[in-house]
Hints:
Strand order of the largest sheet: 19-18-15-16-21-17-20
Helix content: under 10%
Distance between the termini: 30 Å
Number of helices: 3
Largest sheet: 7 strands, mixed
Shape: globular
Amino acid sequence: MPRLFLLAILIAADVAPQCGSTGSTTSSSDLNFVSITVNGGPTGDYLDGVFTSVTICVPGTSTCQTIDGILVDTGSSGLRVVSSVLKLNLPQQTSGGAPLVECAQFQDGFTWGPLRAADVKLASKQASNIPIQVIGESDFSSIPDGCSSTGTAENTVSDLSANGILGVGLYREDCGDACNRAGSNNPGFYYTCPSFGNCTVAQLDSSQQAQNPVWKFSTDNNGVVIQLPSVAPGGTTNVTGMMIFGIGTQSNNALGSAHVLTVNAQGNITTIFNGQSYTDTFIDSGSNGIFFLDAATTGMPTCSQSSDFYCPPTTKSFSATQRGSNAVTSSFTFSIANSDRVPNNFFASAEIGGPNAGTFDWGLPFFFGRSIFVAIDGQGAPGGNPPYWAY
């Protein structure tokens, strides 16, 4: 059983609204989608990880590299690539003349590496000259205590179980105003490192942080739609779907009758389960299960192979309701099966879950059989005021 991989929204961005595109076009020259696949990933053992390919270029040039095995993550913002798979010499980003290095903090660990500038291409779309993180670069191998104390390092392909992470979440950048604060109010995502092993926490404007590439597109820039087919009970070897750019901008990304659930200031919605309300709820394609509550509350034991997952003797079905800050609700059922019994050659399962005390993380199993809309904060979109989830 692969390890728990739990990517969550980093810090809600605090930025001013900006209108995005909400018109429609069907031009074949304006291709607005890429293929995404749930498979074993670069390490061949990733259960419920959804991957795509990204083309990265030296800014303003045709010197490019296409990298596959990039995890699609609706729970974070920004592109991160493991240094060992990147063959380009990208410009180093600096602040005050010193190199900028990021400690991106996730629920299951952190990634450490410099910010470098790149053109990022997906389908016919391009985000030009944006900061991306290059993970595990040898020039910055000394990790400051303020970063290393945040969790487990995930700076290699084997540790990350991916060649990189494509954060296409609710926010334009990965930290927002919080990282431009002084002292203890700064969460310590960004550092200036003027010399080897000499790094200090940096105050960094939002425009200098790792950017969600989608909002930097010239069109179809107000969000994404993640579409994956249903998966039968018991799981399957792999499935293929699409990531569509834009919401209400072309004929293939219309919101239609989807329930729009706006989020609170922390980027969360509410789950109502067994009569209780859990306000720290999020929808995250980067999590490889539905992680919720604890064994005592759910009545399910954890697995012998990994306590990160539930292993009930028989499949258990539950009902839940999600509620947005706009009071819109959506009710549904879901099931949790014994994770230890998933065949080793099956990498897609809609019934995988585990404990997450006091809250709900609706990970990739929630995406199967749905079109999940992710509307980016500050970008105009139909159906409500972003940021929001819709399905």
